[in-house]
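Show me any protein, fold above all:
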Amino acid sequence: MVNYDQKLLKVSLQTSHIMSEKVVLAFSGGLDTSISVSWLMKKHNLDVITATIDVGQDEDFDAIEKNLTR
């Protein structure tokens, strides 16, 4: 069973090829989004722009950036 997020991603990827070759990803720095960045770049040849927002939580943004550049 495909969940809503998977359907939304599929539609977004289909329209992104029509509209542009860029996608913005809300990036938490965790394993799921780290893998998603690589997958979108390699599998769909997209220019991935990541967005991480500091809302005052105790996050290590240096570690998040390091995960992104692996």
